[in-house]
Amino acid sequence: MRVFVLLFNAGTENEGIHTLKVGDRNTILMFESEDDATRYGLMLEAQDFITPSVEAFESEEIEEFCQGSDYDCKLVPEGTLAVPPETNLEQTDWQPDGTPANASSAEKPDFSQSELDEIRRRLEGLI
User: Fold this and answer.
1) Which InterPro entries match (predicted)?
2) In this structure, are residues 40 and 118 in contact, taking their beta carbons and an 8 Å threshold?
3) Which fold, 2-126?
4) Sequence-ordered list of residues with C-beta below 8 angstroms from that of 121, at least 6 positions apart, any chain
5) d(Cα 2, Cα 58) in Å, to the nearest integer?
């Protein structure tokens, strides 16, 4: 089934996917309707997020990505008015300018270059 998700900086090396933090878990919203996803993105933008783009994927691709990334996913049925939380995380796992959150020059990356290449390959396969 075709679903729509929200991406930030789509098509760049600093691409990010919108998630909701539920407890200690990240959840990707998969919208059945492009219009509903667009509406949700506009509400995010009104909360001072950068403007997301709405991208179509097969739900199986998103579910596979979630399994590989230890994320959850949730299907938002067509016509459901999904509303972003009133508050945003003060510090996100992703930064619009590409610098990691809490980055310092002394920190080592969480992933090796080969792991990053594999993740990049898998994400590009989603497109």
Assistant:
1) DUF3110
2) no
3) Trna Endonuclease; Chain: A, domain 1 (3.40.1350)
4) none
5) 4
What pLDDT score was predicted for residue 21?
Answer: 86
Q: Tens digits of per-residue pLDDT, 16-74?
A: 899 998 888 999 999 999 999 999 999 888 888 888 999 999 999 999 999 999 999 99
Q: What is the pTM of this model?
A: 0.67
**Cα–Cα distance measured from residue 126 to residue 124, given in angstroms and rounded to the nearest whole number:** 5
Q: CA torsion 73→76→82→86, rounded to 10°?
A: -10
Dump pLDDT digits (tens) for 75-114: 999 998 877 776 554 545 555 555 544 444 444 456 677 7
Q: How far is CA 6 from its chain centroid?
A: 6
